[in-house]
Amino acid sequence: MGKRIVVKVGSGVLSGGGDGLDAAVLRRLAGEIARARAAGDEILVVSSGAILAGRERLKLKGRPSVQLKQAAAAVGQSRLMRAWEAAFARPRITVAQVLLSGDDLHHRERYLNARNTLLTLLRLGVVPIVNENDTVAVEEIKFGDNDGLSALVAGLVDANLLVLLTDQDGLYTDDPRSNPEARLIPEVRAGAEPARTGKAGPWGTGGMESKVRAARQAAEGGVLAVVANGAKAGTLSAVLAGDGVGTRFVPEEKPLAKRRQWLAFASHPKGRIVVDAGAREALTAKGRSLLASGVKGLSGSFEAGDVVGLVEGGAEFARGLTNVSARDLERIKGLKTSQIEAVLGHKPADEVVQHRDNLAVLKK
Ligand code: GLU
């Protein structure tokens, strides 16, 4: 059986070290993708490079402002797609442009719509080329970088493998550009401490740190993630053949269920509920639900059914769907379940957040 694979390609790879998109690099990657498809795999590409291409066209120099990056992305996105179309022309593969913003995936309905569209494209034999919709993505709603986006896409389509192609060989024990002693780490187990990392170039946003975060997020969702050097010919084929190139992030044996993945990684909390240490312990270690008695305070205006962040000791440790609105919770916080009806005049669900389906504990 073929695998479903998300391949994320960063700007540093697509530029081939130059100022704009390097058509030869795109052709080479398209060729490797075509071979994987011929072997029965399904491939989705998450491609950066819009800002890079726009920047070249507009002849921009230096460190860009956010607005300038967005403008460059708008100019560059069509050039990026044209370059991918051209690269896939030879193997006769149809591509599709899919632009997503963080906000699209914060809404569960749009998240599911995006999933359906991507799966339909795969069924049609098309290679989706996904990028962030930079025009509308202001700071607060941004994925931040395409690394995070690629992990979300991998979860969204139930991928088996996420390949993060960058311009370094993988994750090192230290930044190899400044420390010649730095060694490549071949494998990271779920839950292991991340190593030291390098910073992003001026026109990409990710850097190694965001690759590690994305790879671990994928691994928590049960997806094997590999960070490898896309600037070297044959890397993608070697990763797909399981040749042990790059750094592998071994997935959790018991991955988070889909709904919890969405809660943990894609949802956007409408407010926060502050709980006491006992409630936190019950939620994280004992698999219990959140009761009103464990609630110390709250902020934000949320309705029943909204996503909230659960906070203790100043840190958010879980996300869940609340059964109780902020207005009602303000009146019943700290109360025993038996006292609630008398105060509200009606009784909402016994649990403020139900553990089994509606809560995702966040990893540090
Ligand atoms: N969306 C940006 C672009 O296409 C890339 C963001 C990133 O560097 O990850 O240029």
In words, what does this structure look like?
The protein is of the alpha/beta class and 364 residues long. It has two domains: 4-260, Acetylglutamate kinase-like (Carbamate kinase), CATH 3.40.1160; 269-361, PUA domain (Archaeosine Trna-guanine Transglycosylase, Chain: A, domain 4, Roll). Helices cover 38% and strands 19% of the residues. The chain contains 14 helices and 13 strands. It has an eight-stranded mixed sheet with strand order 3-4-2-1-5-7-8-6, with helices on both faces. Strand 11 (307-312) and strand 12 form a beta hairpin.
Compact overview of the structure:
Helices cover 38% and strands 19% of the residues. It is built from 14 helices and 13 strands.
Spatial sequence of strands, sheet with the most strands: 3-4-2-1-5-7-8-6
The topology string of helices and strands comes to EHHEHHEHHEHEEHEHEHEHEEEHHHE
Our Rg estimate from Cα atoms comes to 22 Å
Tell me the distance between the termini: 35 Å
Summarize model confidence as the mean pLDDT: 88
Helix content bin: 25-40%
How many discrete domains? 2
Which molecules other than protein and nucleic acid are bound? glutamic acid
Shape: elongated
- Count of DSSP H/I helices: 14
Overall strand count: 13
Secondary structure category: alpha/beta
Main sheet, how many strands, which sense, barrel?
8 strands, mixed
Strand % is 15-25%
